[in-house]
Each structure stands twice: as structure tokens, then as C-alpha cells.
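Each lists chain and fold; for instance:
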Amino acid sequence: MASTYLDLTNEVLRELNEIPLTSANFATAIGFQKFVKDAINKSIFDIANEEPQLPFFSAGVSGSTDPFYGNVTVATVAGQRFYTLKNGSSSLTTDYASIDWDDFYLTTINVSGESSPYVSKGLKFLNLADWKRYYRDSENADDANSKHGEPIHVIKSPDSRKFGLSPIPDKVYNVHFYAFAKPTALDAHGDTIVLPEQYSNVITARTRYYIWQFKESPQQAAFALDDYKKAMRTMKSNLINPTPKYMTDDRTYF
């Protein structure tokens, strides 16, 4: 099975009865072989665009900072509403690919100077339109008078680069959430495929789709696309959907 960029490229080339590459000539590949290399990267990006919250796109290990759900922790500042989702990111091109807005967690555990009883609770997501309608005016008035409180809601900034808290925090809290990173384009022959080997067929099927389009064979492209859709459904079912589903009631939202 394919585990590196070279392995995956050669797997596709062999399926098409084309000459495989070696570690020596991989970087200088031209023509059809170069097209296959490009199609593999395009296929990985397609997978990430279709389902950005697959586990192997995770930005980090859950609970690596504190024993709470999430792989990113942001410390709040008293009197500050908005916080950049990815520390050190300068633009959308370097931001996280996706955020689990349904699972923000607020706590004072492990905050310097805090002691029991601690604050520990989930934050409800509030869309920007509802926040503007129900909360913005009163919270802005409170902010002008330096009246802040314990956050209840998390909101998404219009540019999608920051999260906001409502009400504005009155002190330091730790906010935990789960983020997913953008995949990096493969380059060197030894670059490792981010997907587990058992799901490499998702990449190869999508790659064959682009190849048969390139070869102007619409029927073969349709077969490859069908293979991709089936493999993608199986992968998503195995990695995302095996947990129980529950009905919830949000009528007490406000």
C-alpha cells in the first residue's frame, strides 16, 4: 500500500500501465508523470474541501494542554471580546481550515490565581445576526461602563478569522476548542500521505478521475468518480459517523 508521495504516484502509474518513477527522477518528472503528481495533490485538497474535519486533519492532539475536549486553548483578556483563532496566523491562507463551533469550552481551571469553585461550562454558538439583534447594543453599553461578565455564547467574526465571547469576559478564562488544519501539498518523494494507508484508495480514485478527464475518456472518468464517492462515503462513515445520534431541543436558546 502507498504511504509516501512516490508510492502513491507509482501505484497510479502502474494501474494505468505507465512507467513508474524512482526516488532519483521523481523531482524532475515531466509530461504525464508530472500530471499524475499534480493530480494527487489536487485530490488530497478535494478530500479536505469536502470533509475538512476528518481526524487526520486535526490541528493537534485533543486535550494536550488541559484535560478538556479540544486541541487549541486561548486565554481571554478582561474587557476584550474578539480573539484570533490561530495564534500567529497573518491571513486566511494560513488560518485553520475548519473550526468545530459546536464545542467551545470555557473554564478557569489551570488559570493562574484561580481556585475552587471553578468555572467549567460549554459555550453555546450564537450566529452574528442574532447577536447583533439581541445583545450587541446592551453589551456595548456595558463595555463603555466597564461592566463585563462571564461569557455564555461564542460568536464567529464576519471575516471568519476570530471568535468572540458574549458577554465580554470580566477576567481571564481558558477557552478550549477543536481546530482542523489545511493539508500541505506533497513535494518530495518521501513526503508521507496524511491519510491512513487503508484510505489511500480515496486519493487514487480521485486521481484517476482527473487522469481520465485529461485523456478525454468521459466513461472511465465517470467510473473513477463513482469509485471516489463510494470510498469517500466509507471513510466518512468509519471516521465521523459511528457515534450515536440524539435529538435535542434548543427552544430555551435565548
Observations:
- Residues 100 and 178 are 6 Å apart (CA to CA).
- The chain has a mean pLDDT of 90.
- The radius of gyration is 23 Å.
- Helices lie at 5-15, 31-50, 128-134, 136-144, 200-214, 218-239.
